[in-house]
Amino acid sequence: MTQEPRKITKHQLESYIDSPAKQQQLYKRTLFIVVLSQIFGGAGLAAGVTVGALLAQDILGKESFTGIPSALITLGSAAAALLVGRLSQRFGRRLGLVAGFWAGGIGAVGVIVAAVHEHILLLFVSLLLYGAGTASNLQARYAGTDLAKPTQRAKAISVAMVSTTFGAVAGPNLVDVTGEFAVSIGIPALAGPFILAAAAFIFAGFVLFFFLRPDPLVIAKAIFNSQKEQPSTHSAATQPIASPKYNRGLIVGATVMILTQIVMVAIMTMTPIHMKHHGHSLSAVGLVISLHVCAMFLPSLFTGYLVDKIGRTAMSLASGGVLLAAGLVAAFAPADSMPILILALVLLGLGWNFGLISGTAIIVDSTTAATRAKTQGTIDVLIALAGASGGAASGLVVASSSYSMLSWAGAGLALLLVPVVLWSRGKS
């Protein structure tokens, strides 16, 4: 029987295995702890989104490389997602998530040092490490599902995500404040948000390290192993599943999240550069990005309810439709029109939200506790690599053509969600 050495005894494991009521209590407690950590993690997440490209442009002086920070962050996130997934599978969610958050905090400190000394190599390495924090922030959404019933899974994902909103929306709006603070202590203004990111990621790690006990994945694995030995006691939440059907589920869930990630990251990455070129202030950039991030996370409770009620397929299709609209609005938006740029970025965030929650729910439905964290980590690697590709390509597309062309390309990719989801329905 799986157990976590020195953290939970065999007797304690058996008390959870034999008590659905205790499982639900731990499910609710886990959600609360995840929510608390995500509030801080969200604040750390926003720094790279808001000023990463601007900081690289300031040091390099070349616009064609402004997509590199987003690419490095997402590459770091990819590597960390793999490691966090495997650490979580072996030792539990707590160790995996804590390691990722603390690595992200160290990376944020490195970005600050690189900005002070204008050291581009250190900046790139630090952005890779910073990406580990974003990986943990994203993978924390799985922790709440480990003990959730099938009808609670999308809601559990959405609760974890909506809590990110508080920090993620506050972060971009603190660009001027953190910038002024940074200047007052001899640090470049654009590195200011990374001071907040370092503190936020490290504190999020401490919250999980001290309070995510007993580990929900350790308990879920013990329940799963017990039910394998006693097939008649299988519950709907952890019952082993048939391979062919659920392998299709993994493919579809991963594809939905990968496509939404590419579209979102590509357009989002170049929006601050596009706005700066047309005379918008740094505070205006912060406002647009904060509303975008708000749309990425705040609708989650509503989205989770819809995913559980009307289905994963319908919400995946809705994701494609909203992302298509976002691309078209961004393509036609006058460069000096803040309201239309805000509309485009809000739609972009909302479409990503629909795709991530519906895709994640499909993945959770298609795995068991025996392999869940490892599989989830592997899929998050693909998502992060997709984002890295979108971020790197976005700068080249805008440099060689225009922001409008990038938006058109994003709208075209969003349309690919339709045949993928329809294929899954046909196979079902």
Question: What do you see in this structure?
Answer:
The longest helix is centred in the N-terminal third of the chain and has 41 residues. This protein has 17 helices and no strands. Helices cover 82% and strands 0% of the residues. The N terminus is likely disordered. It has one domain: MFS general substrate transporter like domains (Growth Hormone, Chain: A). It is globular and about 65 Å long. With 428 residues, the chain is an all-alpha fold. Helix 2 runs antiparallel to helix 5, helix 3 packs antiparallel against helix 4 and helix 10 packs antiparallel against helix 11.
Briefly, what CATH class? Mainly Alpha
* Stretches with pLDDT under 50, minimum 5 residues: 1-6, 233-242
Biggest β-sheet: count, sense, barrel?
A: none
Say what the CATH topology is. Answer: Growth Hormone, Chain: A
Alpha-carbon Rg, integer = 21 Å
Query: Please, what is the average pLDDT?
Result: 85
CATH architecture verdict? Up-down Bundle
Query: Level of helix content?
Result: over 70%
How many distinct folded domains?
1
String of helices and strands: HHHHHHHHHHHHHHHHH
CATH superfamily: MFS general substrate transporter like domains
Distance between the termini: 35 Å
Strand share of the residues? under 5%
> How many individual β-strands?
0
Topology readout:
Elements: H1 10-17, H2 20-60, H3 68-91, H4 93-117, H5 120-143, H6 153-173, H7 175-184, H8 192-211, H9 216-229, H10 243-277, H11 282-297, H12 300-310, H13 312-332, H14 338-365, H15 372-400, H16 403-415, H17 417-427
Helix pairs in contact: 1-9, 2-3, 2-5, 2-6, 2-8, 2-10, 3-4, 3-5, 3-15, 4-5, 4-8, 5-6, 6-11, 6-12, 6-14, 7-8, 10-11, 10-13, 10-14, 10-15, 10-16, 10-17, 11-14, 12-13, 12-14, 13-14, 13-16, 13-17
